Amino acid sequence: MGLDTPNKKPHDRLAELLSEDMGGVNALIRERMASKHAPRIPEVTAHLVEAGGKRLRPLLTLASARLCGYQGPFHVHLAATVEFIHTATLLHDDVVDESSQRRGRPTANLLWDNKSSVLVGDYLFARSFQLMVEPGNLRVLNILSNAAATIAEGEVLQLTAAQDLKTTEEIYLQVVRGKTAALFSAATEVGGVIAGVPEEQVQALFTYGDALGIAFQIADDLLDYQGDSSATGKNVGDDFRERKLTLPLIKAVARASDEERAFWVRTIEKGDQRDGDLEHALELLNTHAALEDTRSDALAWAEKAKDAMAELPQSELRDLLIDLAYFVVARLY
Fold first, then answer.
1. Closest by alpha carbon to 293, among 251, 238, 328?
2. What is the pLDDT of residues 304-322, one digit of tens each?
3. What phi and psi values does residue 106 have, to the nearest 5 degrees?
4. Which of 138, 205, 206, 260 would bridge with 188, disulfide CB 3.0–4.6 Å?
5. Total number of domains constituting the chain
6. Highest averaged pLDDT of the listed ranges 36-50, 79-93, 160-174, 197-211
């Protein structure tokens, strides 16, 4: 294994291998996002659900359950639950961030309004709880309901940490575990729980999902400063312009001279940004090896995800999950 990936992306190969299960998930999502009394609910939901996303999180649940030998029907319910939680958080995030575009399309809050986005997000959260109850497994309910609370907690923490130069790498990791990794780790962990595998394997699936989610978010934050905008859908430096204190900036601020720190106070804390500031920020990130060290951190988390898979039985699915961990950081090379 390594950073070289086959021509077809790992999540596409996962989707092919699990296409029958995923068909069941999509059918269940369409059924449960319906509303007899409020037609705006399926309109808003369909706009996001049908937007052509990778469906990575539900795929992780299906893959984990199948990897553990699960033969019952409820992995489909849990995968749909995970996707509903994810979609609800996207609806809410776009309102909080005042976003106008997601995946290259106008956001729901732009097409409808903030009220519709928030209320439909609430509806999807409620639907997700209805779905997660159906397997009748209290531990699954505990894992997914905790994840929903952790996601909200991470988003609130980010509100206070995003523009505070005192934010440390530990706080950043706490935010990332909340807003991204919590749902990844819940998605993989419940697959093992529903399959009834030994505790070591359930823990390994949790560790894999947690590490994958962290690697995924660190890579995203790094790509903001060095990615190809046509591939990422974001302009280089969007996080800087939005004054988001992500890992590359946290590393640069920690190593800054007094003069450099004054620059970060002006541009990030006070929001006084001028022509040439982004270029100077990129120069400082390179001067202090912040981008290089962030890339090393992402790779270390991908390695941790790979190592966790050693507890699981050898199979094509296991290999694909390992490939996926490398793929999220292969984008950085």
1. 251
2. 999 999 999 999 999 999 9
3. -60, 145
4. 205
5. 1
6. 197-211
